[in-house]
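User: Hi! Is it possible to get a structure for several chains at once, not just one? Here's what I have:
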Amino acid sequence: MPAVTKIEIRDVQHVYQSDFSSVPALANVNLTVGDGEFVALLGPSGCGKSSLLRIVAELLRPTAGSVQIYSSTNKENGRPKTALVFQEYALFPWRTVLENVVFSLEMRGVARAERLAQARDVLVRVGLESFGAAYPHQLSGGMRQRVGIARALAAQPEVLLMDEPFGALDAQTRTVLQEELLRVWESERKTVLYVTHSIDEAVYMSDRVVLLTARPGRIKAEYSVELPRPRNMEMRGWNSYTKMSLDIWACLREEVETAMSRE
Amino acid sequence: MKHYKRPQCNKVMPSRTRRLFSRELTIPVATSLVAVAAWEFLVHAGFLRAAFFPPPTNIVSTFIGLAVGGELWLHAGTTLGRLITSFLMALIPGTALGLAMGWWMGMRTAADPLVRLLFPIPSIAFFPVVIFYLGLSEWGLLLTAAITPFLLIAVQSASAVESLERTLLEAGRNYGASGLRLFQRVILPAALPRLFIGYRLALGVGLIVTVAVEMVAAKHGLGGFLWHSWQILRIEEMYVSLMLIGFLGILVTYGLEALADRLMPWQVDLLRLKGQR
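Assistant: Yes, the chains can be modeled jointly so their relative placement is included. Here is the combined structure:
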């Protein structure tokens, strides 16, 4: 694990409270993520992984505990702590692709010419340079999520948060976008917290797989992925890859069954 | 900079004006002409009494006479002015109240019973109450015409906010929008398509109430003109005002749609893709 700590999640608990019931979503989660580390959060559905991500994104206030994100520089540089990529894309339908990507820079008050130049650079990086003037609904799901990723990259966050970003896509598109994301990630090695329910995706993408239990989620196990970088498709055939996936499944299965029995 | 310009959706499909002359319109125009011709024939053949159903040709010549005299345009203009004024009187506070009801639970709880109670009351029924305070004035007329549209817009605006996609708000917040800017840059544009549903309904209701109040209490305006022609049994003039009220309705609806297209260029294309236009 890298020496510099980027995210520190301490004793985070979360309970969804309504007038009629209280549902514990997270029970005492402790996690430290190093600078430049790609961490996958894996768990059965409803285990609170998305809630944890929203707590890190400061969209949800935890019932107890705290999250600290350490800035790369001591100076105040205006960079946001997090940028979240949503499973449902959550692009602004009234904004063109370029206007979506430029959004965070606009909110931060970056000068118009400057922010457009930056946004266009990011569009080039995700291969969308000729779609800047299109509206989101004119694009396919895969293209939309490229925009979602571009919007997050343009924000230049300390930490990139991804909530099952490719969960709504078909298997082939998903594979292509996984590769593209890794390629883009290699160029700046940003810290990533990546929520997924796919073991394969978790192993393929990340440096470390963190396994959560069924609700209320707590950390059950952690696996260090020793595959070299840059990753490529061939590694999916390696023995170490298969063994790790099977190990994780052996551990996860019980949690999935617990989660299923509650439905 | 060029790259940043909004795309011209018009290139994909013909514009609103050009579609006016498409087949979608030639068929309804043809059916109307057939209906009018049938009317004309039935009167001349003696099946309809000309005293109650004057032949369309007579109505048209009366219309031309009134149009040349200019009186008719005064009435039509008055009604149009009243409709637009009362619509704005409903739209601005109605949208504000509705957005507040949708956003703050407390506001919803406080305002909902009152809105529910007043909503089913026909707007015209408020007229006596209003003249009690404002007298038989222009403002009394406008206020009466604005009440139901106001409630309608409030109800629809509240539901527009309630049905906002949660992830869009999360994206707005996560990408640095808060407070007033979250409202301007995320909540308002996200709610706009649904706000316009309320505006369309309110405009239709607004015309009904405006004409009704004019019939009861105004010398000018198409409603007043209609009532006056009936009282002095100028049946052709009555029909002319009826027709003009219908055309006025089409005109304002068309204007609102054009405004909606201008404010929401992404929706124009989206609805066409879905085949709803």
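Chain B has two domains: 15-53, 56-274. The CA atoms of residues 4 and 265 of chain B lie 15 Å apart.

User: Great, thank you!
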